Request: fold
Amino acid sequence: MQIFIGADYRGLERKNQLRDFLVGAGFNVEDMGEYEYREGSDFNDPAINVALKVRENPHSFGILICDSAHGMTMQANRFKGIRAAHCDSPESARLAREHDNANILCLSAHFTDEENCKKIATIFIETNFENLERRVRRINRLDEREGND
Reply:
C-alpha cells in the first residue's frame, strides 16, 4: 500500500509521528513535506503535492495534517478525482472510506492527539469502499463542474 503524507508547519510533528508509525507497520510512505519547521508556511503546497500523487496513483492513499485540517481538506478537494475527508474519529474515518471512497485523510494536529491519529489512520487504510450503486453514482457526481470553465 502506497501512502503519500504531507503537513504544514503546525502539523509537522504529528506528520512525522504518523509517518514513522505507518512505516513501522509495513506501509510504503512517501513524505511530501513540510520537512522542517518554517513558521507560517502555507498548507497549500503539501496538500497540492499529495493530491497530485494520489491522483497519479489511483490505488494509493494520502494523509494531510494541519492545525484544524480545514485548509488541507479544501485545497486537496480542488482536484478532480480527489475525495479528501477531515476525520476526527475512527468512526468518521470508517464512514469516509466505506460510504464515500475517500482517498485522502485530513487530520487536525490541534484537536487530534498522536494515538488517535494512529487509530484514525489505521481504520481509514483498512476500511474498504462499500461498492453500492447509489454510492458510486454520488461519488461520480463529485467531479461535476459549474459552468464551462
Q: What stands out?
A: The radius of gyration is 14 Å. Residues 12-24 form the longest helix (13 residues).
